[in-house]
User: Fold these one by one.
Assistant:
Number 1:
Amino acid sequence: MNDQLLSVILTIITASTPLLLAAIGELVVERSGVLNLGVEGMMAVGAVSGFGAALMTGNPYVGVFAALAAGAVLSLLFGFLTLTMVSNQVATGLALTLLGLGAAGLMGESFVGQPGIHLERLHIPGLSEVPLIGPILFGQDFLVYLSLIIVAAVSYVLFRTKAGLIIRAVGDSQQSAHALGYSVVGVRYLCVMFGGACSGLAGGYLSLAYTPQWVENMTAGRGWIALALVVFSSWLPWRIVAGAYLFGTITVMGFSLQAYGIGIPSQLLSALPYIVTILVLVVISGNRALMRANTPACLGQPFVPDR
Amino acid sequence: MRLVLEKRAEASGRMAILSPVIAIALTLITGGIIFALRGLNPFSALYVFFVEPLTTSWSIEQLIVKAAPLAMIGAGLAVSYMANVWNIGAEGQLTAGAIVGSAIPVFFPEFQSPPTLALMLSLGVIGGMAWAAIPAFLKNRFGTNEILTSLMLVYVIQLALDWLVRGPWRDPKGYNFPKTIAFSDWQLLPQFQLLPPSVGPIYINLGAIFAVAAVVALAFMMGRTLKGYELRVQGIAPRAGRFAGFSREKTVWFCFLLSGGLAGLAGICEVMSTVGQLQPGISPSYGFTAIIVAFLGRLNPIGALVAAFALAISYLGGESAQVALGISDKTARVFQGVLLFYILACDSLILYRLKIIGRTPGPAEAKA
């Protein structure tokens, strides 16, 4: 029983981490006033790049870095269009998703069916062997810890430092931030790239740790769920952790119930995360006071500095 | 040295027409570079990809088959996006339409008369509308982001389709393949001869006629009616729309039901022609590609019709390039994505002028 419980908890953690990584990145992007709907596409390209780089070098850490870099580069494309060329953010984000999914499919064609390189789990002699708690606290791969460190760092930077104040100012009142002499476009470029790197990392996690292989469309809407998680968190970093783990749990519950073969169609269980996403959005959006308090006021608005 | 945009005094009419053309040209250049990097002769590869689909009467028929759903859905989405209503779940509404319309042949395989055809098509429209009504309702009632909900519903309905054709709706004599019984006679769309055999016989099905009718009707609505004006005002100047007393709620309903109904119609037409039965994978992502169609057509229904042909060529080109050049048919998806990027970039040039300038002091430095 203990073993079973442990394996379920470990699976929940690996299922939640990619959502957490992608969502915390997007949170920073949206805090700076930019809506990047291309998370799904950046994740897909991150996943395929990470898988490919790990396969070619035999080193999963090179894969992780490649995933991160691929996400950042792709987000730069989005940044150039929406920030420099002032294109419509919604449309450009969709374009990024379509392009990313297409490019990932093409890049990954030769990887289909290849055994992947597994990102190993940490092993601290003694500590990792403590029953139940050991593997959970001290036996994860490093990205699990990194994801939580990123959340802590984002929370600290956004609310305790001047840099965070500038990011929030740019997102809440772009004209004032500009008038104070801050480069609205520059700050947004950095935030967009941070978000891209996080999305790429999330994709890399999928193809290196969650299921070490490449399958087309393996992101399966997780990028979109991450976007919903940002709304769920009402743009507060620590709530992303709660949301991501809630969704990770729901996904794993679906799998476990399938394994027990209860008379529920497997498709319904697979649809559960998407249905819950909609329900959660309804509950959160219905609470107008909450939405008004934290939604970045300039979210999705274009900015052209007048000279 | 850096790039800056300078707002034009008024929107450039010349750029409005040129921007899709420039975008397509840039996509072709990018495509040529991609082919060259793969060691192919870029010119012959581009010829196979983009010209060959236009050379035989069979391939022109195929072009129309693929352009029809794209135009139908794309025109509906163009109207929605024009009014700032972001339905991106057309793929799901297409699937819903296909499912609901297919209920007739699944439950009443013997029901064979002209009303069968009409009933299936109407149910297709209703199915698409019903699925689109969910995000519209949630948007109006709870303020839920329609982009996320409409997209999530795509996954849900695709899983529902999967369940149906593997479970209750599976053809009992189908050797366990996940599909319903094959549709026949009045359950399929009639075909018409467009051109006589002397030119090369070209047949089109009823779906193509619906597509053209939808495009013309929407173009008329947008250009000549108060409703179209109302939608355009809400898209371009939402505040002005509010002051004018246009109901945002009604617009959200209208756009979702319209675009969802058209997507549903496209879905039922697909299963009643190309596919001939209900099965998983009834559409090669028409609902998502139609987003590109809407933008390439500059959110204008007539433009969407033209754009639908451009994207239909990319589908066919992908197939023929796979056969002739041995390159993946996934290349087409990349081209479609690249094309949308270029369109969006070029569209900025309608409102702004691109300038390359040397470094100038920013406002803060100038003050100091």
Number 2:
Amino acid sequence: MEINNNTPWQDMTPGGTIYDAGNSKDFKTGDWRSMKPIYIEEKCKQCGLCFPVCPDDAIPVNKDQKRGDYNYDFCKGCGVCAKACPFGAIVMEEEDK
Amino acid sequence: MSIRERLSGNEATAFAMKQINPDVVAAFPITPSTEIPQYFSTYVDNGEVDTEFVAVESEHSAMSACIGAEAAGARAMTATSANGLEYMWEMVQIASSMRLPIVMALVNRAISGPLNIHSDHSDAMGVRDSGWIMLFSETNQEAYDNMLMAHRIAEHKNVNLPLMVCQDGFITSHSIENIELLETEEVRKFIGTYKPEHYLLDRKNPIAMGPMDLQSYLFEHKRQQWEAMKNAKQVILDVSKEFEKLTGRKYELFEEYKMEDADYVIVCMNSTAGTVKNVIDKLRKEGIKAGLIKIRVFRPFPGEEIAKALLKAKAIAILDKTPLLSETGGPLYEDITSAMYTQKINIPAINYSYGIGGRDVTEMQIESVYKDLQELKEMEKPYRFLGLRSK
Amino acid sequence: MYNVKEIVANKPSRFSAGHRMCAGCGAPPVARMILRAVKPEDHVVISNATGCMEVSTCIYPYTSWTDSYIHTAFECTAATASGAEAAYKALKKQGKIPENEDTKFICFGGDGGTYDIGIQALSGAMERGHDMTYVCYDNGAYMNTGIQRSSATPQFADTTTSPAGTVIPGKMQVRKDLTEIMASHHLPYVAQTAAYLNFKDLYEKAEKAIYTKGAKFLNVLAPCPRGWGYPTEDLMKLNKLAVDTCYWPLYEVKDGVYHITYKPAKKLPVEEFLKPQKRFKHMFKPGNEWMIEKFQEEVDKRWNELLAKEEMTNKSK
């Protein structure tokens, strides 16, 4: 379903129903960020405190239950994860630094 | 095989619903439509239908639950009147905007205030541009027949709009009349099963309904609703043809009574039409060429067709069973005169507000309207009251 | 045993990124974790009230929900879900949905849509016993429309319709206790929870609610950086302080029996919860000590009542 603000009325989905569940992944929110979390892997103990607190699902977790680096397409830079980390493995930096 | 019975309008409606066997009925009691969910819940509790009856705590929730049920992929129905319809007003609009073919029985009653439980059309007129198809019924038979056709019209792929079947409170809803019913098997065969293309319970294809629809999209979605409403006209005619084959009972967008050569024409809706027909028969014997247009399909409004049917009239009286609170006449008057204007038809047409709050409509009153029409030489005093006490 | 790493690794998110809730909002982690409590093989129909969550997770033509989702209006989330649930029952009864396929019905509403305008529809749907879980994410005001007071707003809070003025210092009324109102509906399961102790309390209560048959209610605290006036990164700190001061006790009521799921070893003074929030700033001005005292009294009163209910309902069990 490719609908945008050039789509004529005849081609829009009736009633505004959206057929692609979960398609907000196509809408990036990373450009909202003014602060940016930096993941310092060496300091990370994989304790699992950071990823459930992320409002934006921007911390990927693999099948081995280990987190990876940020998905900056979605991270809004709120800093909740950095505060949750007891090991200093996440530091916040100015976005354009 | 048809069954001969004697039923009130409410009984006939509830019986139609039983034959339809919807998946969900959600309703709240309000006079004069209360009997419909009452009768229906008896069918439910006696195992005569497969329906889940949701005894909601308000009409707002009745329509909300119907939306939830229909969106989930089920057939949902409700019944209400007056203030109940007003209370669900917000959801009435949302139902049509979500393109859900919910079917409602509206037993017409005056809206408050002051409180009055008797019939006029002020409830229906308040939702006339809510994106619902609106069918009006003169008799119990018509209320029943319209209900049987409702799902076929509403669920048609070119339509997908909710539909309400209107009948006059008490006058129709509580009066017992002879009626011809279809066998339940025939009804179910005629209606078929509901197969929506997209629905919430389709776990393989989950969907999101009722989004935030901003400046770039709402206008286009509204345009789609208008298209669906326009499409409904042909669908109504097609379904009515099919129904006629099944029952022998003919339905169109509106009924013309003695219109072939009519000079003086009344346009009205619902039960008043019966009274008007009696008067016409009497006047015809006296040589007065009186005629009637009884609107069946009020939305989509068959403006062009009605205007053309009025072409040969000398004078027209449009009867609005709605309090006159506008400077340009009642809703039916506005619709018809507007249609006449676009068809370049200029015939004197006057408006009567009548029957408010269940005020009796007598043959004498109707006769007086035809008398007024005979005296009407040009457009004068277009806004009038019928049956109103005045000094 | 609860293991958040295992849960996140094995149960994919059902609430996608790309939503437009504010940075640091307390609601998305809560909603995402609640949905993770659903078995992966089960389908969900979500009914969402108008509010922050709705206007930022389902903006045409995008949706953040991987399950089926419906929004109709502000006050009728529970009624909408009750219709969908009735449809499910009817279709299942008719054999149109296979017996082994399970669909869960979950409502999300803010405190405005739940405590206030939606309480009638909520009460009705719960009383009728529809098999669904209603989740209120309580951020203590109408945040979506710009921080107006609700009946969930705590006393003295400065909101845009209860501003801390020179004559009236914020909202003068105490907050409604909706969890108790729902408990009075005698539902099979009612709980109050928050994103605390690494979401254990929240997850376990969500799982219990979703997999208990009948009408269930969860009241979840959802701090709002904008409305409460604290830096976005302090989300989990606010959750912790709300619980450790007993402002927001974690408890459940199962078939009428109360169980406080977390009792702080040391109950902190409520000013520790109030202090980091701008909405309570005026309470800390000299001369306004009475407001903090009054607030503390209310918290203590409710906490003691809760302890008493726990004792009483377990005794009579």
